[in-house]
Amino acid sequence: MGSVEDRLRNAVSSLNCVREEIAKVIVGQQDVVDGVLICLLSGGHVLLEGVPGLGKTTLLRTLSRVLQLKYSRIQFTPDLMPADIVGSMILETGDGGAKLLRFQPGPIFAHLVLADEINRATPKTQSALLEAMQERTVTSGTSTHELEAPFLVMATQNPIEMEGTYPLPEAQLDRFLMKCLVNYPDRDQLNRIVDRTIHRDEVRVEAVIGREAILEIRSLCREILVAQHVQDFAVDLVLATQPEQKQAHELARKYIRYGSSPRGAQALVECGRAHALMRGRYHLSVDDVLAVAPAVLRHRIILNFDAHADGQTTESIIAEIIRGVTVTASS
């Protein structure tokens, strides 16, 4: 197995190679790439929000090539049915003419699943996907089918309020480990994207690691040491978002209807561990928790009417809460 230092060095080296290969195709968006990798290593799922055309689909397809994982894409539409995601029983005729029922697996049976424009499907179809995400199994009739690890769902949604969309309920949003915002490229990045279009260079990405190596790195993440004061910081951060707690931040009392669930505290530690490992450290620091906090918390708090009336956003309130808890912790 090698020493802890060797395993850590190899993991960091592999992850850096993965990021370099992705950068051949994806211009910028390093925060989003890191967010998806953190969720993959933490065994969770990621929600990406951004307008169409920012490379969300390309990112996951590239990741599947670099990591040699099976990839599937589900385009969510209002007429999509649960069976179109998980699969269904089909009737077959055997050799002797006997009728047999056989399970035909749906596109959910992959390592990396892109759920494109998840808010366009009906709640019934959304819940079929979210059940598979949570349970890591699919039940059809009387049989249960396991989903092979690693299993990552990357769901995308457009931030624009469009006709015919069904926003994800809060309880279902909570199932996502992180919510990353895919921002528009700046001038230099946009120029690089257009350059690639003009030159039409065929970019070849190399396979860097495989499924077994990913599972090994994932197990290494679980060994990252968590000091009590860092754990306390993560817990304080979550309590500060809950308006009814005595540790609540003043903005939480004023503008938040519901704060983060306990899943938020678990996610801060799990994602922070993966972040620490990617930076080559074998212990979780407060800086790791701070680095992942916005993506972990932004979909876990619900603002009240006063927040909208006063022009407050989830981002501005989370930034203030993080600042307040950091100041308290360091004093």
Mean pLDDT, nearest integer? Answer: 84
Unreliable stretches covering 5 or more consecutive residues: none
Query: What is the spatial order of strands in the main beta sheet?
Result: 2-5-8-1-9
Largest sheet at a glance?
5 strands, parallel
How many angstroms separate the termini? 42 Å
In short:
48% of the residues lie in helices and 17% in strands. The protein has 331 residues and is of the alpha/beta class. The protein is globular and about 80 Å long.
Can you tell me about this structure?
The protein contains 14 helices and 13 strands. It is α/β, with parallel strands linked by helices. The strands form 5 sheets. The chain has a 5-stranded parallel beta sheet with strand order 2-5-8-1-9. The protein has a two-stranded antiparallel ribbon with strand order 3-4. A hairpin with a 5-residue loop joins strand 3 and strand 4 (99-105). The protein starts with a helix and ends with a helix.
